[in-house]
Design a protein that fits this description.
It is built from 24 helices and 20 strands. It has about 675 residues and is of the alpha+beta class. The strands form five sheets. A five-stranded mixed β-sheet has the order 2-11-10-3-9, with helices on one face. A five-stranded antiparallel β-sheet has the order 14-13-12-15-16. Strands 5-4-7-8 form a four-stranded antiparallel β-sheet. Strand 15 and strand 16 form a beta hairpin. Helix 1 runs antiparallel to helix 2 and helix 16 packs across helix 17. The protein is globular, with a radius of gyration of 28 Å. The protein binds 2-(butylsulfanyl)adenosine (IVH). 2-(butylsulfanyl)adenosine binds next to strand 3, strand 8 and strand 11. The site of 2-(butylsulfanyl)adenosine has 14 residues, from strand 3, strand 8 and strand 11. Its cofactor is Mg(2+); Mn(2+). Keywords: DNA damage, DNA repair, DNA replication, Ligase, Magnesium, Manganese, Metal-binding, NAD, Zinc. This is DNA ligase.
């Protein structure tokens, strides 16, 4: 090899290693050490060298893998047909109801079902064209998912080539076996990396990984169970669809069974409920599907789920452990919740250390005592709950529970007005109540202010920079003070300030929910915002008008009226108005005023890519990945990448997040 070629080879190898290291820092450690510019220039240099010197090509190069762009560069794929969820059944009665409803709609008494294991993984959709795997996507919001094609290609059991030419879309579940999950977690532990809670989380973390080396090192697997539009290919039953998929080379879960009636379905369920722990992968129930595909259209679907199938969920899993302590906490409304500290116990794949005990009466009614052995239940995403003591095991000196008399934080005497089961701290200046109200206001489903987490809010409260919700909007004037805090750099301040500014434009329902008006949850906030359109209209609403609103009623009406009559709350609203918060309901679809416009993102922004997609979709606009002549706007954040230069070259309008907000405000006004 000539000297020059040798130098090139060395440079290529060095670039590859460097880029892999940066990928690792970015994706795995979540701690990038280089700017986008430096990354991009190194990456492009490598691409150029690899093009010029193909003799040094290697499949191991980061240019051949997907691990070379930030996590949010996963592009969206729109599903040809929405990816729905399934309705749930929890007992035999629910199944009978499902069966009867089907018989009624189809006027048919002999219904055959196919039962399948409900694999606890992630649903995916794969498309094939001309016999070749074209795309693979996650479920996402059901309408569009993320492009995970490259990662799916690493799964050996998913065929890349199938023996048919026509277009095919198949759906299924990606999962990790219990064994593989344990292996991955052992490795995480050895490397001092955070552990995955369960195989499902580990699979989710892997499938969205952009570092192909990591994906490759974890043995993801997939079962396929859904042949989209099978009837178009002359397939008449689900049974036949499964056989066909298998014939094409897909991996089908072999435990499926054809059942002649719902009684047989129940026997199948009982069988697998018992066998569940012996399976090499996690299942969380059984999926029951009508066998006759030709009846699917007649049965139709709801917004969320088809009516031709149902998911039987296994009962929540319980376990026994020791109750080490009982302690109360104060919520934003002053409500006292009692919590259990437990000897750590693994339930359904996750370690449980704390569980809720709800209120004092709940504990007294069950006579739960500290040091008792107790049964603990964990159902899905619901907070673990202590169910009952194991009385037979009780030691004589286990400590009998007594309700707290004073607030655990501000020491104010607690109130409980029967028949109310909860005790309340009625001190509105209680620091725990204030902290929790602020956390609620900033939370994702409320004003979605990123960066104001519990720790930071606590710090700002201690420093008296915040006393109440409206003070959040004054934080942007405390730049110097905030920058003087340890570990608070210019970048975190800018991100925080942007997020605060952006939140001012939120639609009314987010603000209403964020204010924490008693009984006004997310759904009620939407109903109120849609009906009254502005905060002022709502503040002027009469009790009768409120109480007569569908789904509102007298309790919520009283709570809303009381809230706005309270002078402290009136002052808060005044302050928020002075900070120029949007008080109007911004109708989604009100205007697809940005229809046809395309946006591209670059640099670090205060919202995730998905959040921008959601925001802009509401206005009819789209987000794409690359700058072209068709790009309408480039939204620029901190440390923009190459896209900025490309946009300048093509004369694409360049705006920052604040300008985007102004633009949206402007178009919404005019639209
Ligand atoms: S059929 C229209 N079959 O369970 C939806 N789903 O609770 C068709 N799942 O979103 C889904 N195993 O992610 C089906 N054998 C199976 C399944 C299964 C797991 C998941 C799937 C679905 C969720 C619904």
């Amino acid at each position: 090899m000539s000297n020059k070629n040798n130098d090139i080879k060395i440079e290529i190898i060095q670039l590859r290693n460097q880029i892999k290291q940066w990928n690792y820092e970015y994706h795995v450690l979540d701690a990038p050490t280089v700017s986008d510019e430096l990354y991009d220039s190194a990456y492009h240099r490598l691409v150029k060298l690899e093009e010029q010197y193909p003799q040094f090509n290697s499949n191991d190069s980061p240019t051949k893998t997907v691990g070379n762009k930030p996590i949010n560069s996963l592009t969206k794929i729109f599903h040809q047909q929405p990816m729905l969820s399934l309705g749930n059944a929890f007992n035999y009665e629910d199944l009978l109801k499902f069966d009867q409803q089907i018989k009624k709609t189809l006027s048919e008494n002999n219904i055959e079902y196919v039962c399948e294991l409900k694999i606890d993984g992630l649903s995916i959709s794969i498309t094939y064209e001309k016999g070749e795997l074209k795309t693979a996507a996650t479920r996402g919001d059901g309408i569009a998912g993320e492009d995970i094609t490259n990662n799916i290609l690493t799964i050996k059991t998913i065929p890349k080539i199938i023996p048919i030419n026509s277009k095919l879309e198949v759906r299924g579940e990606i999962y990790l076996s219990k064994e593989e999950f344990n292996r991955i977690n052992e490795k995480q532990q050895q490397q001092n990396l955070p552990l995955f809670a369960n195989p499902r989380n580990a699979a989710a973390g892997t499938i969205r990984q952009l570092d192909i080396n990591i994906v490759n090192s974890r043995k993801l697997d997939g079962f396929l169970y859904y042949y989209i539009n099978a009837t178009n290919d002359n397939i008449k039953t689900h049974e036949q669809a499964l056989f066909t998929l298998q014939k094409y080379g897909f991996k089908i879960n072999e435990q499926w069974q054809l059942c002649k009636n719902i009684e047989e379905v129940w026997i199948y369920i009982q069988k697998y409920q018992k066998l569940r722990n012996t399976l090499p992968y996690e299942i969380d129930g059984i999926v029951i599907k009508i066998n006759d595909l030709t009846s699917y259209d007649m049965l139709g679907r709801t917004n969320k789920a088809p009516k031709w199938a149902i998911a039987y969920k296994f009962p929540a899993v319980t376990s026994v452990t020791k109750l080490l302590d009982i302690f109360p906490t104060v919520g934003r409304t002053g409500k006292i919740t009692y919590n259990a500290r437990l000897q750590p116990v693994i339930i359904a794949g996750t370690t449980v250390t704390f569980a809720t005990l709800h209120n004092g009466d709940y504990i007294i009614n069950r006579d739960l005592r500290i040091n008792d052995l107790v049964s603990v239940k964990k159902a899905g995403d619901i907070i673990p709950e202590v169910i009952a003591p194991i009385i037979s095991n009780r030691q004589i000196n286990n400590i009998i529970f007594k309700k707290a008399i004073n607030c655990p934080v501000c020491k104010t005497k607690l109130e409980q007005v029967p028949p109310e089961v909860d005790q309340f701290c009625i001190n509105s200046d209680c620091s725990s109540r204030i902290l929790k109200s602020l956390m609620h206001f900033c939370s994702r489903n409320a004003m979605d202010i990123i960066g104001l987490n519990e720790k930071i809010l606590l710090r700002f409260l201690d420093l008296k920079w915040i006393k109440t919700i409206s003070d959040i909007y004054n934080l942007i004037n405390l730049r110097k003070e905030i920058l003087s805090l340890p570990r608070f750099g210019e970048k975190s301040f800018t991100n925080l300030a942007n997020s605060i500014i952006l939140s001012k434009q939120n639609s009314l329902e987010r603000l209403l929910f964020g204010l924490g008006i008693r009984h006004v949850g997310q759904k009620t906030a939407i109903i109120l915002a849609k009906k009254y359109l502005t905060l002022n209209n709502l503040m002027e609403a009469t009790f009768d008008d409120l109480a007569n609103t569908n789904e509102i009623g007298p309790i919520i009406a009283t709570s809303v009226i009381d809230y706005f009559l309270n002078p402290t709350n009136q002052q808060l609203i005044n302050n928020l108005q002075n900070f120029k918060l949007n008080f109007n309901y911004l109708q989604k679809n009100q205007s697809q005023v940005l229809n046809g416009k395309t946006f591209v993102l670059t640099g670090t922004l205060t919202k995730s890519r998905n959040e921008f997609i959601e925001l802009l979709n509401n206005y009819g606009a789209k987000i794409t990945n690359t700058i072209s002549n068709n790009t309408s706007y480039l939204i620029v954040g901190e440390n923009p990448g190459n896209k900025l230069a490309q946009a300048r070259k093509l004369n694409v309008k360049i705006i920052n997040e604040e300008q985007l907000q102004n633009l949206l405000k402007e178009v919404a006004k005019n639209g």
